[in-house]
């Protein structure tokens, strides 16, 4: 529409072919009353058509009026089924495409590109001859489909036209891109409709949605209008119900309707038959385009979502710009040029924006699959940085979740914190910082520029978006992270070449909470490395499962069957939703055989696990009650989220006298606001898990913090800094209810003033009456997120533990107590 408007304004011969009886079909199919955003806000609009944020109906009305005013030549109900060049064949331009038939079989077909002019054949048999073709068909006509059992049931749909049509239904929205979020909010907007709306997100991040949409969705969730289900996938769809795989296991909820908004892919076969090549073989790849949108078929230009640019303002600018280029304006720069010029201004040399984009794309392997247009969008969310030789890029234990890619030069990884001279190089084209990206943990090593170096710093959200859009980038990131995790874990002088086969044959598996990766008695010799999450090990004793040990992220398991042979001796299952690297046992056996030091280490680990098994077997009669009790307590702790904790507060109720000194000390150490609720939480036997931060291995609270105010400290503590804006996202995302939103009370008089003069409210958190009475009535204090920070920076460690007069309160890491081996040698 925008391209046709520009052609009309310039007086060029043109026709706009619309396969429907209306303009702008994608926007037309938006749900009624939808608020359309005009992002990115910093980008100017060049189109002859006006566009600003507003209601769908108003925007479509404006475009209809302006299309008529410009006398755009529109041909409705004109669906194109083929585009073929009628000029001479282009030498060497034959390419092979794969055609998938409806019966599931495939066949290949050779396509020969021809010079323009092009013959466009419509479905009604009419033909049109054009010297230039602008292909702006989007991808909405080719939506991704659900692939679970029951996906073909009639109540599964991929479009929502009018949310007011649905009344008193249980509706599940699958997908948390902009379309899914807007559908969910539209269905839940009017309480009179009485819809129960849930929206499913496979991850904890909203990588593909606009920030304003995410904030509005979370506000609706907090208000009780709808339910956001994080780390949740569809397992099975039934009549009236849907089964979900959640972070805590399978759940079945009522469901009358499923609306799947899980993206779309280019109509590849049609596009390839036009003579247009793609950037890669995977389904989500985009056409190969020049910086002026021209495809590999001369004079066929591709713009909009089909080019990888789904935002409306981008599409409209491209429509304007491509017509300018066709008309001979070769000097016109893209509308985002000033923004990108500023990003590249600190790099050495006088390269243009286009030259820098191609330099980064060509030299960074994870970006190789992006076309120039996608590179422009990608760099709007990333930063190009130049480091002098010896300059520190980041330090060991520093917080950070961004990913770095080396476009030129190299970096040195300081592997020994005591001797910075011992380094490992990472060469140009590769990445680093992937540990922070995957786990959210602090930086594992100090990295410096080994020479003058150009890097791209990719924010966590930009990296997640890149992986969701480019299968090739996702595979490269996963391969590098797998290789480095194995080298770091097994050491013993291994090199990348030593483990190449093991890495190439490995696969990353997502494991539901409670799902087993190894089952006692089964055959198999594969090794499993825990990438994200944690596992528990159980053994059947006397017909009952006995808890043996806890395995945090960074552990591995499965070596016993590989080294000693035989069946699996225990069951290993996910304590929470986890990811594991499955390493082919035969490939890893070759590595062990060629490296005696690694074999010796594996045998020591195996011996330790064999000792635990033997201990349990030996004690199963005499200490069966103790072992059973321990196993039940350990299982209880895992159910309380200890499986993903790095530090947890436990209270022994046999010792606790209820003095609340722990809460008072916490408040007095933190601006008068306690981070601990001693009485809240659950108890098993005499072990109580109060409401206090677990400092999760992969913190849910970090998932969507707009000011990036949540970090990890050097000791693993998760803390919130002073940039908190009080949005409440962290509170909503925490599954354990350990974050509160509150105003910081006024400063209290010191303890001596209270003791001798009666000033102030005394030790602990002041009551609301005192706080309000002593606050400045003219200053409205904003709320901030309050959570345990493990008393970071306070001498002596956690105040709650120090203040306990009986020793009932302890803070420990799960792997310090979640093992049956702690019973060994004790007088049961």
From TrEMBL:
Residues 366-484, 490-609 form the Cyclic nucleotide-binding domain. PROSITE patterns: 4FE4S_FER_1, 4FE4S_FER_2, CNMP_BINDING_1, CNMP_BINDING_2, CNMP_BINDING_3. Pfam families: cNMP_binding, Fer4_11, Pyr_redox_3. It comes from the Bacteria. Residues 647-679, 716-744, 782-815 form the 4Fe-4S ferredoxin-type domain. The keyword Transcription regulation does not apply. GO terms for molecular function: 4 iron, 4 sulfur cluster binding; metal ion binding. Keywords: 4Fe-4S, Electron transport, Iron, Iron-sulfur, Metal-binding, Transport. The keyword Transmembrane helix does not apply. PANTHER family: DIMETHYLSULFOXIDE REDUCTASE CHAIN B, OXIDOREDUCTASE. This is Cyclic nucleotide-binding domain-containing protein.
């Amino acid at each position: 529409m925008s391209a046709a408007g520009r052609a009309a304004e310039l007086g060029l011969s043109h026709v706009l072919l619309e396969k429907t009886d209306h303009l702008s079909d994608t926007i037309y199919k938006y749900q009624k009353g939808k608020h359309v955003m005009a992002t990115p806000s910093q980008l100017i609009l060049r189109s002859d058509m006006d566009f600003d944020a507003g209601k769908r109906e108003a925007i479509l009305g404006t475009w209809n009026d302006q299309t008529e005013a410009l006398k755009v030549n529109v041909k409705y109900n004109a669906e194109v089924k083929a585009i073929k060049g009628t000029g001479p064949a282009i030498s060497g331009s034959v390419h092979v495409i794969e055609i998938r038939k409806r019966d599931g079989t495939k066949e290949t077909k050779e396509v020969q590109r021809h010079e323009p002019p092009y013959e466009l054949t419509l479905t009604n048999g009419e033909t049109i001859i054009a010297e230039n073709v602008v292909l702006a068909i989007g991808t909405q006509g080719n939506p991704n489909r659900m692939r679970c059992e029951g996906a073909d049931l009639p109540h599964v749909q991929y479009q929502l036209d009018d949310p007011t049509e649905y009344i008193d239904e249980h509706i599940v929205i699958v997908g948390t891109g902009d379309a899914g979020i807007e559908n969910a909010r539209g269905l839940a907007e009017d309480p009179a409709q009485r819809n129960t709306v849930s929206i499913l997100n496979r991850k904890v991040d909203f990588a593909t949605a606009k920030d304003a949409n995410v904030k509005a969705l979370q506000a609706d969730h907090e208000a009780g209008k709808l339910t956001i289900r994080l780390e949740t996938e569809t397992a099975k769809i039934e009549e009236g119900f849907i089964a979900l795989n959640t972070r805590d296991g399978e759940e079945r909820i009522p469901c009358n309707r499923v609306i799947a908004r899980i993206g779309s892919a280019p109509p590849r076969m049609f596009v390839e038959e036009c003579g247009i090549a793609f950037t890669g073989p995977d389904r989500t790849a985009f056409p190969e385009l020049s910086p002026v949108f021209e495809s590999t078929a001369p004079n066929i230009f591709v713009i909009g979502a089909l080019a990888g640019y789904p935002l409306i303002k981008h599409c409209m600018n491209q429509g304007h710009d491509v017509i300018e280029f066709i008309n001979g304006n070769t000097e016109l720069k893209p509308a985002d040029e000033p923004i990108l010029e500023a990003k590249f201004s600190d790099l050495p040399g006088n390269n243009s924006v286009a030259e820098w984009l191609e330099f980064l794309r060509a030299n960074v392997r994870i970006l190789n699959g992006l076309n120039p247009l996608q590179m422009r969008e990608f760099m709007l969310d990333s930063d190009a940085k130049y480091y002098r030789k010896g300059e520190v890029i980041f330090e060991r234990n520093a917080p950070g979740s961004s990913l770095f890619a080396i476009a030129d030069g190299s970096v040195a990884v300081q592997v020994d914190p005591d001797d910075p001279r011992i380094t490992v190089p990472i060469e140009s084209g590769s990445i680093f910082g992937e540990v922070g990206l995957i786990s959210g943990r602090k930086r594992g090593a100090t990295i410096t520029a080994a020479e003058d170096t150009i890097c791209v710093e990719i924010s966590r959200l930009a990296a997640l978006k890149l992986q969701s859009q480019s299968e090739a980038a996702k595979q490269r990131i996963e391969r590098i992270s797998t290789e480095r995790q194995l080298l770091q874990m097994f050491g013993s002088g291994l090199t990348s070449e030593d483990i190449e086969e093991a890495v190439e044959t490995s696969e990353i598996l997502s494991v539901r909470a409670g799902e087993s990766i190894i089952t006692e008695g089964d055959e198999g010799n594969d090794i499993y490395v825990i990438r994200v999450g944690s596992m528990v090990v159980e053994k059947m004793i006397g017909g009952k499962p006995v808890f043996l040990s806890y395995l945090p992220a960074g552990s591995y398991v499965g070596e016993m069957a590989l080294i000693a042979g035989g069946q699996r001796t225990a069951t290993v299952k996910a304590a929470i939703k986890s990811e594991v690297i499955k390493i082919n046992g035969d490939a890893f056996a070759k590595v062990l055989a060629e490296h005696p030091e690694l074999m010796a280490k594996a045998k020591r680990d195996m011996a330790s696990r064999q000792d635990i098994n033997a201990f349990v077997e030996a004690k199963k009669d005499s200490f069966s009650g103790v072992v059973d009790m321990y196993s039940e307590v350990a299982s209880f702790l895992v159910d309380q989220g200890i499986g993903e904790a790095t530090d947890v507060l436990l209270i022994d109720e046999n010792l606790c006298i209820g003095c609340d000194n722990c809460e008072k000390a916490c408040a007095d150490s933190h601006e008068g606001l306690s981070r601990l609720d001693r009485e809240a939480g659950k108890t098993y036997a005499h072990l109580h898990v109060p409401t206090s931060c677990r400092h999760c291995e992969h913190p849910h609270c970090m998932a969507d913090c707009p000011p990036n105010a949540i970090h990890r400290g050097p000791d693993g503590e998760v803390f919130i800094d002073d940039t908190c804006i009080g949005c409440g996202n962290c509170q909503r995302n925490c599954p354990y209810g350990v974050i509160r939103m509150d105003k910081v009370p006024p400063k209290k008089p010191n303890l001596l003033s209270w003791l001798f003069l009666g000033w102030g409210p005394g030790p602990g958190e002041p009551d609301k009456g005192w706080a309000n009475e002593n606050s400045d009535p003219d200053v409205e204090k904003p709320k901030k997120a309050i959570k345990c920070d493990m008393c970071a920076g306070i001498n002596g460690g956690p105040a709650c533990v120090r203040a306990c007069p009986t020793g009932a309160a302890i803070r420990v890491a799960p792997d310090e107590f979640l093992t049956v081996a702690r019973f060994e040698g004790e007088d049961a």
